[in-house]
Amino acid sequence: MRKLLLFLIFLIFIFPVFSQSDLLVLKQRNQTIQTWVPESFINFQFSSKQWIQGIIKNIRNDSIIMEQIVLQRVANRFGFPTIDTAKMGLLKIHVREIYGMPKRNFSTGIISNGALFKLGSGGYIFLNIFNSVIHNQPLFSSQNLTNLGIASGVFALGALLQARHKTYVVLGKKYTMRILHTNISNK
Sheet harboring 168-170: ordered strands across? Predict the structure, then answer.
């Protein structure tokens, strides 16, 4: 009986040690988009606009401690691409120093980033000029200039879409990064 009582007292004292840690939460207005816990991989844009990636080691009151790593694609001894990992050391970052996070959904990327418009109109302009030169047709005829003007406008639209398209979200009013405290004794 005495051993059982000692075991129960031991369990009462050991459970707070293994309690759940704090969470790092990315929210879009009031909706949670993504969460991170210690030992999670994170990739973000620092306030200096540098992209940082690493493994979260600890989440404290208003900052995260992470082991910064660099993943690079290199060729192995046979010439095939492989991933090489370099550890850069521990880094302590305040949550407000995180400027942006990469977007997770790229379902309409080829249209919204303007690549399809630029590719199609650039190909049309090249073929139009090439065919005009090969068939000895006037390059600056009124019909051909109209076609080239429309294709140039579509190319400019693609360039404008590309300039406005971002592959990351900027933290601010719409997106916020917060630490959710799950254990009051950790503060």
Answer: 81-94, 63-75, 51-59, 41-46, 98-102, 168-170
